[in-house]
User: Fold this.
Amino acid sequence: MSDENENEEALGTARSVYHILLGIGIAAAVFTAAVCILMIATFVQLRINDPLDDPVLVELREEYSADMQNEDLQKQIRWLDYRLRSVYFRDRGQIVAGGYMAVIGAVIMLAALGIGQALQKKLPLLGDKVSDEAFWGAISSSRGWVAAAGALLVAVTAYLAFSTETNLPTEASLIASLQKRTRPEPTPDKGPDKGPEKPARDDVRPEPAAKGPSVEELMKNCTVFRGPTGTGYSPAKNVPIEWNEEANKNILWKVPVALCGLSSPITWDDKVFLSGATRKKRELYCFNAKDGSLAWTGTYETSEDASTDYEVYADVETLMHAAATPAVDGERVYVIFANGELVAFDIKTGKPVWSKVVGDTTDNMYGLSNSLLIYNGSVICAFDGYSYTISRFDGATGKKLWSRERDDNTWASPILIKTKDKKTLVINAGNSEVSGWDAETGKKLWAHDLLSGDVAPSPTAGGGLVFANFQECGIFGIDPTGKSEVAWAIEELDQGSFSDTTSMVTDGKVLYQFHEDLLTCVDAVAGKVHYEQAMEGSTSYASPTIVGDKLYCFSGDTTYVVKVGPKFQLLKTNKLDEYCDSSPAVVEGRMYIRTDKSLYAVGE
Assistant:
């Protein structure tokens, strides 16, 4: 009797377990199927509903094409573009999350049904008259078809989530299309001054360059995009934290700029430089820092080998022909335009010294935006077009010192850093690599596969680390010494997302990202988020800048000044009459700000 009771008890337990497993398996199957169907439907919807065909956006564009000086329409288009992109990438993120959920659901379903069936086969040994034999028999007889159909559904969902990249129209430069461009064969060598040059091999000995300006001269000026090293940090002192154009407070001067562009101002001693262009006209301007008067306008004869039919983003077409920021070394000013031509101008006269076509930009879907660097009497240029290269040219002659092919495409600008092991590196961030290159030889020293999509935020550096970020990828701290390693990573924020255009900035202790209307502060050493602070306005294309212990965040016609540190403290909110999309140039006692129409000098 005791044995029978024990048998019945074991039988009851076993039957309960396999019924539970049966329920889990069926629930997981239904869940997986529902997720797969929902994700496929979302994917199809993304394919059909082009964000750029939004009727409101189309109407605004039509209005703007008829009135291109209407600043209110510009702001509405920018705001709507941000909103549409946010929705687009939210849906894209749901597809990726759905892919993970479908795979997990399928694994649970297979495990539950497999264990349940194995358990059911043992129940007759315990004396069970199984009432579910018909069910399991049906499962067994049809499992081939069920498994094939389920596997196909899950496989399709996983493929859409993890492999398929979305192809958006080429005019949508602010919508990261997740489309990695296929790199074609390098263009043939057409000579030193006539056409795109073929990159040199790594084993070719680089040519020496003439000695450039001293470190002291470089550091007291803003020689390249976002400061002397391109990181966005400035040691300048006595820069005002308050200004107001309406009240004429701390506005030293304001002058019009003939041709517009996204490029930022740069400085050398008593001179301020800006580039401007249209599809047919390209100019470099030199302003006197004292009063803003125009010292000279640099022009040159365009090569017949330069690109003409290149793409630019339609909503900011007037700005994209001169999107890359020039560079200056005290003797010459270097500028690269959207047609792929690199030109050196004499700093005193504005006369062209040399020019060359770096490459064909026809294949650049949004427009050339990689700014230049200065290093030891030479200019370093990251180029994206039919080929992806990084090259170094002698500043005096334009002679190519070295040129290397890159494995990534990018709209970010490189930066220059000095590592703890005394090496000078060019740091580049793109799809998919963050990479370090020896500035002297051009040798690629290391690379980390961290980013994807149409990367636009430039890397920054401080405190011995390099930092990179991009939407849907994260924020990464990288040790650039030796073979390099990733020190830390932030793959998700509590409130916001990762930047798609603006670059980060650091003082070596804290790291800032200003994206849309959220300012994120991170411990630069440990990679922990200090705070995420909502701001009143959304970011423009101008990247935040640190000057001493003050952070300057740009939002159209408004600039927020924040105390640098782990706790948020807003110091001032400043206003101009015009919209700012370019990062500032900062020197002792001054900040130069380019707007859509003008150049401002802010100082006390």
About this structure: The first strand starts at residue 233 and ends at 234. Residues 126-131, 164-205 have pLDDT under 50 and may be disordered. Residues 71-122 form the longest helix (52 residues). The radius of gyration is 29 Å.
